Amino acid sequence: MRIKVHFLLILLFAVHSLLPLFGQTNGIRFNQGDLQKIKSLAKGAKKPIFLEIYLNGCPHCEAIKPILAEKEVGNFYNPRFINWKVEANSAESKALQKSLEITYPEFPMFIFLDAEGKLIHFATPSERSSKQDFVEEVISHGKIALNPSLRTETYAERFKKGERDLMFLINFGKYAKMRKDNQQLLAINDALAQIITQPSDMTSQAGFYVLQRLVNDYENPLAQYFFNHLDEFRAKYPAKDVQETGESILYQSLYGPKADTYSVKLIQQMRESMEKLGVSPQAAASRTLLKELEAYFRSQNTLGAVKRFNEYRKSGVTVGAADYAYLMRYFNEKATESVYLPEMPLWAVDALNAVSTQEQTSALVADIYLELSVAYQKMNKKEMAISSIQKGLEIAKHAKVDTKKYEAQLQKLKML
């Protein structure tokens, strides 16, 4: 009797141990290893690669996990693909992003590669109200990946030919964002603005999704409506989501493909929009200062840049010594007129006053004196220029940093 009981216990333990394996074979069988190993398997099997990018802690990734373990899903993917999954913050993920030159717009993501590792399709599966609908959603992406006329590698050509379906544009926008193709994303956003025109559409879930995920230009009509009707969006969506959406649009605009075309007036409007979002005036001014100065210099309005910087200095914002050093060099390099030069000694005094005790003999202080020397040189004040650079060189030697640029400036002055 003991032997039978003992045997049954062993049998039950063995079955229990194997259950995860049986459960895994019902759904998608994911291979282990890095991209090179997966490509080797794909070449050997003459199959494309299916890759799930997931993020630990992502609720959408957790929601899709049991769907990928469904038998119907496994029956579709296992015979047709070499399957692989990668956590977004893993070493494999970083290597993949570098190899494909992509970023991750959202999670989870489905990426499909050919056996050589070339990207052929990309999708972001949406949760469905029923399990069966969710299963069919996941399988549909695999079917599209196997269809050369439908997968995302064809999107650019289809867009050129005039395809403008809303879901096509949204999917193409996410694909362009993943590929870091910001110029293409601008064109897609322009097309979206031509079909999402009614206020009710702009504030709909689809419209808000486009604003959240895709819009990268402050001048886009969708962005303009958003910033001019923030209360409408706050009434429908969480305040945190509205805030993050606005800041994302502004950030992508200020550092995106159109950033060097924006006028001073438009950048000032962006600053005002930040404040409408709830960003403090001081923080908003700090975020846009450099972009405003760039716009002034583009329009060859050095006096405007000087006035803006001085206005910023007097606004109560703390300007650090490193900020002064950077902006002094920036004016020396970018200014097209000499009107800024009389301000440089004043800026240098404030910069040196902002230096901490620990930084008194640092490269930072040496650089402040270097930029002051360049300004004095431009003012034809040779002796003051030499005196400044000698101080800078002395401090650079004490700080044990490379002294070439200080010595070059001193040599240049001596030859004048």
SSE class = mainly alpha
Mean pLDDT, all residues: 93
Distance separating the two termini: 108 Å
CATH-assigned fold name of the domain at 21-150: Glutaredoxin
- CATH top level of the domain at 21-150 is Alpha Beta
Beta-strand percentage?
5-15%
CATH superfamily of the domain at 21-150: Glutaredoxin
SSE pattern? HHEHHEHEEHHHHHHHHHHHHHHHHH
Number of helices: 22
Strand order of the main beta sheet, please?
A: 2-1-3-4
Brief write-up:
This protein has 416 residues and is mainly alpha-helical. It has helices at residues 2-26, 35-45, 59-68, 71-80, 91-100, 131-145, 155-160, 166-178, 182-195, 199-202, 205-213, 221-228, 230-236, 239-254, 264-277, 281-298, 302-313, 321-334, 344-353, 363-378, 382-399, 404-415, and strands at residues 49-54, 82-87, 109-113, 119-123. Among the domains are: 21-150, Glutaredoxin; 319-416, Serine Threonine Protein Phosphatase 5, Tetratricopeptide repeat (Alpha Horseshoe).
